[in-house]
TrEMBL record:
Pfam family membership, one: PCI
Segments traversing the membrane: none
InterPro entries per record: COPS7/eIF3m, eIF3m_C_helix, PCI_dom
Protein family according to the UniProt entry: Belongs to the CSN7/EIF3M family. CSN7 subfamily.
Identification of the protein by name: PCI domain-containing protein
Cross-referenced SMART domains: PINT
PANTHER family: COP9 SIGNALOSOME COMPLEX SUBUNIT 7/DENDRITIC CELL PROTEIN GA17 (PTHR15350), EUKARYOTIC TRANSLATION INITIATION FACTOR 3 SUBUNIT M (PTHR15350:SF2)
Residue intervals of the PCI domain: 100-266
Length: 314
């Protein structure tokens, strides 16, 4: 480990001088190592070098192997937090990878399960950042942030309570709640770089998802119009946008002016949804067992009947 520290320190001294070559040397060093923690140490230095030398494009492909790395390294929670946060920050600089950046930021926040308030407080800023990123992202409509203690602590926080309220609106309420929130907190939204028109567009899609999950199987055009606060001629446009984003599975019945929902979509997939899924799977498993038992019983009866017929022929 001491030798590794000396080598990496030398390589990192001038990260802007031939950074790609330095990165290649670091990767070679990583591949020579057999000690898991030494590998993790060098990989983290690799990330630092890539950022300082502005050559992150060479290291980003390795992020797909993070799960395998974690199995090999067997690092503790503090090291995992350091890794997830570093990866998220690198991906955040690439706009086309905002969804991946959000995934690693969520992984970072998930490592704070079971920690006390003092430890949780370390993640306040990152939790707030995750909320802003979710609200801003035009292609992320579902997340587990509400189930994470690192995020839940913001509900009663003097600085971030309003931001937590915004998250609850985006995950559990409809457009009218956001309109009321914006009327009272427009300055706050601007301070986080959130664009009102973009928030409205996302809330319309989320409200449409909410309408599809009420269990009725049909959504009248009129209800969509009123909920999304749009004109009559815009209803089908927003339904198509929901279909394109794969948020709803439905068909439009223009004759009866209703949207027929094939499969409802959950806006939040937390503990309650997992429990409901478990119940369904147990039911399906029981049904399959009954079908197999019936088939086997009928087969035994049929075989016995054929054998009896054979005896009569003889």
């Amino acid at each position: 480990m001491e030798i590794v520290k000396v080598i990496t320190a030398k390589i990192l001294q001038q990260p802007n001088e031939k950074p790609a070559v330095r990165l290649k040397i670091m990767i070679s060093l990583y591949n020579l190592l057999e000690t898991p923690y030494c590998q993790f140490y060098v990989y983290m230095k690799l990330l630092n070098l890539a950022v300082d030398g502005k050559v992150t494009e060479h290291i980003i492909p390795s992020f797909k192997k993070i799960d395998n790395f974690l199995k090999d390294w067997k690092i503790g929670i503090p090291e995992q937090r350091e890794l997830f946060l570093a990866v998220s920050n690198i991906l955040k600089e690439n706009k086309s990878m905002s969804k991946d950046a959000f995934k690693f930021l969520t992984s970072y926040l998930a490592t704070f399960l079971g920690d006390d308030s003092h430890v949780l407080s370390e993640a306040k800023e990152e939790a707030a950042c995750a909320i802003v990123e979710f609200v801003r992202a035009p292609d992320i409509f579902q997340c587990d942030l509400l189930d994470l203690p690192a995020v839940a602590q913001l509900e009663k926080d003097a600085k971030y309570a309003l931001l937590y309220q915004l998250l609850k609106i985006f995950l559990t309420q409809r457009l009218d709640a956001y309109i009321d929130y914006h009327a009272a907190n427009s300055t706050l939204l601007k301070s986080y770089g959130l664009v009102h028109e973009e928030c409205i567009a996302k809330m319309r899609l989320l409200s449409l998802v909410d309408l599809s999950s009420d269990g009725s199987g049909q959504i009248p055009y009129e209800l969509i119009r009123d909920t999304l606060q749009i004109n009559d001629d815009e209803v089908e446009l927003w339904v198509v946008r929901g279909l394109t984003a794969k948020l709803i599975d439905c068909k439009m019945d223009q004759m009866n002016q209703v949207v027929v929902v094939s499969h409802p979509t959950e806006r939040v997939f937390g503990q309650h949804q997992w429990q409901a899924l478990r119940t369904k799977l147990v039911t399906w498993r029981g049904n399959i067992v009954n079908v197999i038992s019936t088939i086997q019983a009928n087969k035994i009866t049929e075989d016995g009947s054929q054998a009896a017929q054979g005896l009569v022929v003889r």
